[in-house]
């Protein structure tokens, strides 16, 4: 090969200023794997493996010899091959600051602004902000927010992160103007505007103090100019530096894959099991990385990155005439929604073209623009049109194996050519398209069409041109008749089978005509001033700066400075999380003889295992062995909740996809996972039950049906003036904790002892079930939890059978430590979700809106085993009243048994489902009567002393206080009038507003779980080691427990340390769940500390002028124990299902919210304009942590009710297995104005220091967005004469919003009859 004899084969790069050389790099290894496993820098995290969450973000720096400048850019280390950073400098979160030296200002501001909860996402977010500052030391708030388009956080709700980093921006000042809270007397309330107290100061940012770029990389070009080749275990990597070298390598390896950002190939190899023996990096060939402008257009090299194109276009547009740049404008507008910054920094334009994704964001633009491609091989070059003939089938094209794509030429538009591009996705930022389009038309002086090109993605296996439509339009006048005809022609040109891949058929087809309608009006607007209502159809998305206010009580006058309770204390681990020093399970150092386990999972939803063939798998190098049910020394039967109805390893039958059949144990993760894919399993398959409706039709239930009856429902429904029947379906929700399930199982070598390090909310159940599996007493097993990178209920039970138990069995079999951290797709496939719910109800009510009777059936999709489903159903039933007094109630619960993974606990634990059903029929009643939603809610709202439908008396009822305050603070009634006026003038954009209260019961409904323990050791140096039964997963539990201990002992919080949660210090703990952990563990900590304090009292009295250390040492020398345990059980709890009596809850947390939204009736997009929340949290232990929980719960609820959709195929295959397909809210989904107030003067005598639980209660308040959307849809429907009650299922996705806005475009594509086709995915 030309030049290969001069090639280098030693990888050289720098990490945090240190030179790294490697003579044998593995081309298949990612940069993340390398820095974590070989360099032991564990600050960067693996969150998804596909570049969708940003937890792995690092900064790459390189010297550009053409511009003579150092370039910094953020990348996803989970995708970047380590070979790709040859000659570059890598900066990780450890390289910019440390708690041991000094925090970088970025790290300081996110930690002190309370922007880190679980902390797993924090290093990646820090590095995104750091990279922005290295490039732009004084960015705008717009630039700052766009820097995080490739980052996700599941805990915080994003607001505190944005507010903390807003202090770096040029616009940093109060956004409230004259109404700034700082201009008003605070009295007894503390007010934070944009998350910051008025006295908050930070270390200033000085860009001159940043680390220096390695001089070796700047002074020599040898790393840039030499062809590189690396050979690994099964893959070779070439990096040519001339086009001749590139063509030579390609000719000798015609099936080789060209790679630039590895954003497609990385996903294919990781998740699709594809293997490419030869990879060619095309990033250093000048002809492929240049952008050249001529008088007719622009030529872009195929390896040019998307952000390089964006920046070049941005500058060039200033030099060209407006009409020449219309395609450039469309491309740049599209790029701002294309993936995240980390992807755009490395992904190349050629990859988009050659990959040929049918939903590519750019290909429809290139095709509609009339682009030309230059292809080249050793035989020569040729130019081909990028038109309907380029793609021959799904992801196939006309390029020969020996050819490469060199460049694309995009012509300028002429003065009478008009060009626009469109994209619709589930989420605005960093989401794949459902449908996208590029549209171009050339008109003559009489407004007749000379040429038109309409290209679409998402409407066929390839990007397609609507040729018939475009040909018919030639010669036609650009008028309303053409618009009408084009809509019909598009229907014929773009057919979609009702069973087509991707589903959403009617929505996708409607989008094609809706897009053209927008295009029609945008072109028309060049010549004609549009009517005001038409203008709303082409209103651009406007970026708006976020603003916020947080209000909470100050601590009482006279409270000692040393007493931290009630103060806004930062999360105790925030700084460590911001620097990457906080240790999570997979960050722990590897044992010298450690093994890795990879699970072998079932691929059918229901079947009998006929055979398992491991021969090929065991031949892979590094394989130690295979584990299955025959290797379990104790019992293979298990069950993390009440029933033992599962198996660790499936022995005969599989009842869903993703069940564990066996496991491969190997020396490395790569070997184990590669071998696991080679295990061959044969099944006898049976028809699965996937959906609730299928379960109902086939009478498939778990035998746990429950009923609550209060009053005479039948008589009330017969006698009442009005009745209404309805139904609603609430979808499932993936927990999407950023840290997937992880475990290290360590056999101790004697007496069958086992030590388990796990990312679990439930160390005791992990311990007990591991002991059962091993056949040893529980005293021989210890489970330890340092911290979790999020949990939300998903690690309460499912972490145990999904990972911990298989690992424990493997460790026992081989007598060596075994580690595993599930990949994101494995975690999503195996661990279950929030329970989907279907409800049917009948309501009786008066003409005024008073509710007299409720008869409701709740159906939960439990999945293939019981897990916690019965308890989830109980809480859903208990919350079916929401905040409303209903004289006659009958609630029935049904647990559907299906063939999907067992569904489980999730923040709210059935409460949000029950509450949502109730708020839905309240909304229906108001719509039926034509009266105010707020009036119906107020009329039926609980008062002090009322009894619920399960006969618990409501004490200290603050529903009305929260309700009135939020309506007043939000100016609800005036805004409702303004919205009605706006909607009268706006046809295609609508606004809506909604107010919803909440009442959430606090306690485990299983009474025995309402207990907790704590252990306190005081050492002779005065330091305190505190242990309790709760696990830290970002909710600030350890921080609060330190505050409680500090107040009780009367010592500073700095003296108190919590190391971990472990079963050998506090036994028999309940799971950290049910929002009760601060209540339970806080009281146990208080008791233990009080015991110590009481023991010290004689020494305090003897020497009142002494110090804490004096008293501790005096006690020690007097042989007084300085160790104490505490125990607490919640009193007066217990509910009798037979008599419908008792108290299932200790108390209630109350709250209320108002949200305003705007929807695009043509696409289904929406944005949240403003949210106000008032929560009753008693006397908050830590107001900033509690506000963080409110905002995080709201964001999670927002995802549940508007965005997140798990999709199963009819045969039980999960189609949404990562952030690419499953979308949680992002930074851009934060309400534009987001205000949170904690209700004052509402102490709660039933919890520690008068506080209240906070984790779950606020989640339902996000339903205000759902009902505000429904309000906006109601206005859109009214414009077309459609009125009355209508069904809107949750989530209110873009599809559901668009199709509910009934108009001429939706009516063109009616829904097919159910059962007449096989859908791509089902509503399970």
TrEMBL record:
Q: Which GO terms describe its molecular function?
A: 2 iron, 2 sulfur cluster binding; FAD binding; iron ion binding; molybdopterin cofactor binding; xanthine dehydrogenase activity
Q: Which keywords label this protein?
A: 2Fe-2S, FAD, Flavoprotein, Iron, Iron-sulfur, Metal-binding, Molybdenum, NAD, Oxidoreductase, Peroxisome
Entries under InterPro entries matching the protein: 2Fe-2S-bd, 2Fe-2S-bd_dom_sf, 2Fe-2S_ferredoxin-like_sf, 2Fe-2S_ferredoxin-type, 2Fe2S_fd_BS, Ald_Oxase/Xan_DH_a/b, Ald_Oxase/Xan_DH_a/b_sf, Ald_Oxase/xanthine_DH-like
A GO biological-process term? purine nucleobase catabolic process
Q: Which residues are responsible for catalysis?
A: 1256
For binding [2Fe-2S] cluster 1, which residues are annotated in this chain's numbering? 48, 53, 56, 78
Name the reaction it catalyses: hypoxanthine + NAD(+) + H2O = xanthine + NADH + H(+); xanthine + NAD(+) + H2O = urate + NADH + H(+)
Detail which positions bind FAD.
258-265, 338, 361, 405, 423
Spell out the subcellular localization from the entry. Peroxisome
Family, per entry: Belongs to the xanthine dehydrogenase family.
**What is the protein named?**
xanthine dehydrogenase
Organism for this UniProt entry: Owenia fusiformis (Polychaete worm)
């Amino acid at each position: 090969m030309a030049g290969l004899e001069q090639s280098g084969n030693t990888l050289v790069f720098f990490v945090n200023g240190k030179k790294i050389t490697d003579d044998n790099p593995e081309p298949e290894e990612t940069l993340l794997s390398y820095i974590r496993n070989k360099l032991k820098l564990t600050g960067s995290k693996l969150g998804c493996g596909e570049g969708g969450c940003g937890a792995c973000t690092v900064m790459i720096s390189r010297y550009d010899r053409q511009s003579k400048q150092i370039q910094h850019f953020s990348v996803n280390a989970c995708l970047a091959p380590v070979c790709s950073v040859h000659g570059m400098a890598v900066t990780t979160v450890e390289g910019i600051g440390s708690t041991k030296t000094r925090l970088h200002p970025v790290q300081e501001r996110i930690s002190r602004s309370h922007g880190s909860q679980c902390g797993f996402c924090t290093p990646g977010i820090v590095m995104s902000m750091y990279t922005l500052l290295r490039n732009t030391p004084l960015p705008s708030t717009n630039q700052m927010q766009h820097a995080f388009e490739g980052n996700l956080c599941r805990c915080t709700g994003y607001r505190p992160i944005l507010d903390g980093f807003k202090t770096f921006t040029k616009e940093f000042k109060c956004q409230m103007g004259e109404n700034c809270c700082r201009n008003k007397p605070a009295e007894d309330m503390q007010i934070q505007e944009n998350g910051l107290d008025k006295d908050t100061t930070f270390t200033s940012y000085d860009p001159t103090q940043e680390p220096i770029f390695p001089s070796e990389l700047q002074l020599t070009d040898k790393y840039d100019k030499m062809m590189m080749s690396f050979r690994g275990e099964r893959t070779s990597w070439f990096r040519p530096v001339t086009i001749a070298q590139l063509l030579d390598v390609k000719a000798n390896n015609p099936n080789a894959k060209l790679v630039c950002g590895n954003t497609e190939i990385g996903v294919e190899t990781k998740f699709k099991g594809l293997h490419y023996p030869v990879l060619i990096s095309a990033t250093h060939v000048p002809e492929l990385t240049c952008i050249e402008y001529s008088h007719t257009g622009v030529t872009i090299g195929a390896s040019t990155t998307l952000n390089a194109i964006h920046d070049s276009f941005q500058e060039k547009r200033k030099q060209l005439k407006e009409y020449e740049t219309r395609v450039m404008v469309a491309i740049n507008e599209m790029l701002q929604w294309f993936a995240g910054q980390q992807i755009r920094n490395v992904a190349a334009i050629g990859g988009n073209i050659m990959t040929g994704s049918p939903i590519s964001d750019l290909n429809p633009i290139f095709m509609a623009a009339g682009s030309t491609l230059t292809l080249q091989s050793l035989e020569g070059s040729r130019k081909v049109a990028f038109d309907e003939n380029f793609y021959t089938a799904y992801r196939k094209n006309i390029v020969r194996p020996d050819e490469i794509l060199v460049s694309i030429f995009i012509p300028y538009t002429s003065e009478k050519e008009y060009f626009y591009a469109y994209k619709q996705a589930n989420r605005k930022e960093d989401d794949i398209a459902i449908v996208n389009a590029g549209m171009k038309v050339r008109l003559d002086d009489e407004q007749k069409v000379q040429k038109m090109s309409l290209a679409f993605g998402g409407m066929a296996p390839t990007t397609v041109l609507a040729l018939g439509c475009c040909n018919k339009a030639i010669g036609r006048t650009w008028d309303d008749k053409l618009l009408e005809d084009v809509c019909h022609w598009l229907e014929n040109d773009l057919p979609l089978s009702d069973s087509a891949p991707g589903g959403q058929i009617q929505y996708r087809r409607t989008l094609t005509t809706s897009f053209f309608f927008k295009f029609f009006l945008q072109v028309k607007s060049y010549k004609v001033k549009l009517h005001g209502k038409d203008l709303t159809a082409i209103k651009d998305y406007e970026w708006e700066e976020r603003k916020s206010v947080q209000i909470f009580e100050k601590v009482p006058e006279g409270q000692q400075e040393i007493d931290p309770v009630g103060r806004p204390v930062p999360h105790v681990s925030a700084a460590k999380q911001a620097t990457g020093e906080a240790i999570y399970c997979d960050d722990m150092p590897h044992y010298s003889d450690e093994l890795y386990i990879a699970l072998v999972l079932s691929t059918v939803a229901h079947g009998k295992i006929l055979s398992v063939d491991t021969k090929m798998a065991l031949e892979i190098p590094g394989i130690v062995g295979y584990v299955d049910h025959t290797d379990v020394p104790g019992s293979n039967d298990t069950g993390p909740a009440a029933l033992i109805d599962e198996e660790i390893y499936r022995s005969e039958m599989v009842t869903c996809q993703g069940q564990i059949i066996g496991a491969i144990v190997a020396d490395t993760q790569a070997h184990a996972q590669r071998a696991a894919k080679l295990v061959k399993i044969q099944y006898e398959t049976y028809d699965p039950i996937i959906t609730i409706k299928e379960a109902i039709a086939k009478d498939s239930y778990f035998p746990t049906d429950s009923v609550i009856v209060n009053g005479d429902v039948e008589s009330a429904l017969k006698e009442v003036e009005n009745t209404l029947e309805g139904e609603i379906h609430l979808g499932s929700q993936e927990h999407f904790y950023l840290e997937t399930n992880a475990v290290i199982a360590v056999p101790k070598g004697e007496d069958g002892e086992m030590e388990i390090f796990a990312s679990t909310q439930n160390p005791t159940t992990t311990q007990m079930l591991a002991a059962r599996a091993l056949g040893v007493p529980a005293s021989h097993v210890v489970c330890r939890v340092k911290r979790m990178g999020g949990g939300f209920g998903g690690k309460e039970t499912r972490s145990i059978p999904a990972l911990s138990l298989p690992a424990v069995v493997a460790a026992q079999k081989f007598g060596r430590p075994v580690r595993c951290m599930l990949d994101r797709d494995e975690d999503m496939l195996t661990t279950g979700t929030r329970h989907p719910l279907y409800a049917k109800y009948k309501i009786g009510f008066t003409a005024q809106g008073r509710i007299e009777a409720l008869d409701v059936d709740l159906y939960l999709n439990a999945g293939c085993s019981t897990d916690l489903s019965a308890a989830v159903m109980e809480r859903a039933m208990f919350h079916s009243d929401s905040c409303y007094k209903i004289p006659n109630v009958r609630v029935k619960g049904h647990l559907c048994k299906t063939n999907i993974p067992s569904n489980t606990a999730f923040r709210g634990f059935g409460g949000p489902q029950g509450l949502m059903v109730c708020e839905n029929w309240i909304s229906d009643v108001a719509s039926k009567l034509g009266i105010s939603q707020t009036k119906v809610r107020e009329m039926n709202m609980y008062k002090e002393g009322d009894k619920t439908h399960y006969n618990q008396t409501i004490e200290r009822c603050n529903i009305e206080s929260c309700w009135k305050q939020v309506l007043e603070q939000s100016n609800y009634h005036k805004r409702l009038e303004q919205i009605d006026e706006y909607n009268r003038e706006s046809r295609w954009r609508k606004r809506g507003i909604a107010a919803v209260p909440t009442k959430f019961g606090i306690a485990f409904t299983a009474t025995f779980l309402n207990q907790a323990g704590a252990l306190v050791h005081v050492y002779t140096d005065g330091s305190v080691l505190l242990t309790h039964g709760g696990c830290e997963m970002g909710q600030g539990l350890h921080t609060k427990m330190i505050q409680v201990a500090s107040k009780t002992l009367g010592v500073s919080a700095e003296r108190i340390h919590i190391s971990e949660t472990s079963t050998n210090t506090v036994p028999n703990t309940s799971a950290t769940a049910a929002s009760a952990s601060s209540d339970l563990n806080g009281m146990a900590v208080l008791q233990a500390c009080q015991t110590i304090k009481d023991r010290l009292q004689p020494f305090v009295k003897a020497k009142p002028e002494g110090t804490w250390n004096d008293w501790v040492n005096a006690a020690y020398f007097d042989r007084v124990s300085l160790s104490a345990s505490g125990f607490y059980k919640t009193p007066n709890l217990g509910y009798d299902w037979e008599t419908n009596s008792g108290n299932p809850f200790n108390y209630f947390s109350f709250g209320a919210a108002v949200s305003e939204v705007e929807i695009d009736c043509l696409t289904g997009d929406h944005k949240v304009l403003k949210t106000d929340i008032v929560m009753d949290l008693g006397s908050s232990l830590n107001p900033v942590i509690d506000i963080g929980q409110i905002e995080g719960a709201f964001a999670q609820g927002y995802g549940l009710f508007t965005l997140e959709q798990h999709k199963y195929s009819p045969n039980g295959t999960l189609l949404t297995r990562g952030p690419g397909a499953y979308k949680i809210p992002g930074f851009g989904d934060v309400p534009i104005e987001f205000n949170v107030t904690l209700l004052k003067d509402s102490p709660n005598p039933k919890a520690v220091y008068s506080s209240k639980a906070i984790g779950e209660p606020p989640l339902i308040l996000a339903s205000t967005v759902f009902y505000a959307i429904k309000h906006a849809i109601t206005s859109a429907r009214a414009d077309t004469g459609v009125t009355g009650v209508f069904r809107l299922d949750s989530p209110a996705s873009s599809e559901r919003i668009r199709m509910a806005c009934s108009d001429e475009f939706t009516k063109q594509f009616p829904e097919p009859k159910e059962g007449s086709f096989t859908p791509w995915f089902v509503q399970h």
